[in-house]
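Q: Structure tokens for this one, please.
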Amino acid sequence: MKVLVCTESEILGALAGHALFAAGHEVITEERPELLANRTAGADALLISPALAKSGIRLLREKGFEGRSLLFSDDPQEALEAQVSALGAEGALCASPIETLGERFRQALAQRRRILIVDDSEIAAELLRAELEPKGFQIAYAKDAEEATRIILKKETRPDLVLLDINMPGVDGRQFCRFLKQNQLFRGIKVVLCSGQSRAEVEAAAAECGADGFILKDEYLGRWLTEQIR
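A: Here is the predicted structure, written as tokens:
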């Protein structure tokens, strides 16, 4: 596997490179994303420090990188995971302990991305499940915000993305989105509003509650969501 490593720390980069090479990977390490711009061909993964991630991931995607991007530093794992969504990464990997980095890297890439569908329509949810599960996503379903909260509170079932219906009984999608975005523990979760309302209405609702995006229920969902959580 070809792995790109981008970190400002020369020492951390060298340690990561050695650990991943020992695990059988081809490793290219640089201190700035632009130095990797011509090395993206065939790369399966990118480990990148949070300080470089937002612009660095975007640059390397533009240059043809199609692998998984993981935030990488010696910060605690939970602190890294909380920044994943905001920085445009697909996961996180703490550098310590460096002795187990190769195995933890393998596990991080093997994890299936989790999507939580929150919709009071079980039919709509099942249609989405049928579309997304064959693409490799792990799907959970909640009929309302209360049930969704129970799923999200457990770290082992916490999703990477919440696909959230706007019009639900009790707490509606806008309110639940604001709850997630205002809670430090959940800020790493992407929230995408989904509704049968007009594009203008859904777009306005997403902007008002701080959602990461929106999609109309009558649009083709699978390809768009795959791109969002890739």
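A few notes: The chain has a mean pLDDT of 89. The chain has ten helices and ten strands.
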